[in-house]
């Protein structure tokens, strides 16, 4: 099989929904013990892994779901198939509401929608032969009339996924990773599903076999008119195999659109960051990479407003901001670090003392915090981020409150002095192109704040 990935073909595709998510939520409860329930002062926290996702996949379409690790992609996959029970929202397969089915009624769903897991070794029963792995689900879902017919179909499926029928008596440990994934694909197809949910199906495989598996999935999708939700963190893979792409961040879809349009003209800053991280094989191409600082925030207590705003390189400043976009971003990050107790004047004083400074003054501590968390320097030591004097003075006023031991007072002060629409309001889904949507205040149509932000220079 060629290592080149076959392009997507959308000709003749039925636009009727095969899979539809409406406000799907999946929350996990942390510290939900009997003692915590009985004691009113004990807080039971919720992990908002999937938080109100709307997504439609048309018949015969392949939609990619991308995002960083921990953004909720795999949880969404399990929730829509009810391998995990959704907290709220609805899932529809064709016209049937999956979330309304009883446990006994779910049996029919299992034959209509199947999942291909990331790790083929852990998803296959090590005690089953390949034949048993393929025949058992057919028997459960009454596919074929006799075991002889099921065994024949198992051999045909093996041939179709690129393995010979002679492998039916082998066990999973006797196969390579790519071969095991072929067996997993054959198992998913054994019950004749109409929808496939592929959760990182090639990420555990060697690069040398990834293209082969991707080509196989594309060929099967075309031949069987399968609908596929393809989950991956590898955007270069998604671009080759998917018709449309949905970008997920911290439990929410932030952008969605046709693959080529989204990759060529991303409209959400998070999408821009992800696309800029794709390696370019041509060394002569000079492409700036958008830096993304910090980790994905915890879904236990997600940021207010736009959940991406603490890390966003284009977070919108207020009208009275006179500095650069990079300077505003650094101030927002400083504010969140103070609130998250990531900045400690005491720790900075100890650090300066350990470096040999005797009798470290409060002013030296404030200067050191400012240097580390606000001002950026290049390799030559020159400052690349400077605040206008008025804003710099305000930052120092807030840091002085922190130094005096009033963290809550400092947080309240920074919130009052440095506030963005991105943290105050949850962005609505906006039409940003031909069937392309983004949830970002840069595209809001009820004000002018976004216009000024787009005109600020983003230094990268």
Architecture blueprint of SSEs:
Elements: E1 17-30, H1 34-38, E2 45-58, E3 62-66, H2 73-80, E4 88-93, E5 96-97, H3 106-112, E6 113-116, H4 120-123, H5 130-140, H6 147-160, H7 177-189, E7 195-199, H8 207-224, E8 227-232, H9 235-241, E9 244-249, E10 252-258, H10 259-264, H11 269-276, H12 325-339, H13 345-354, H14 362-373, H15 389-403, H16 407-417, H17 421-424, E11 429-433, E12 436-439, H18 449-455
How would you describe what is shown here?
There is one protein chain. The protein is of the alpha/beta class. It folds into two domains: 17-276, P-loop containing nucleotide triphosphate hydrolases (Rossmann fold, 3-Layer(aba) Sandwich), CATH 3.40.50; 325-419, no CATH class. It has 18 helices and twelve strands. It has an eight-stranded mixed β-sheet with strand order 6-7-8-3-9-10-12-11, sandwiched between helices. The protein has a four-stranded antiparallel β-sheet with strand order 2-1-4-5. β9 and β10 form a beta hairpin. α5 crosses α6 (147-160) and α7 (177-189) runs parallel beside α8 (207-224).
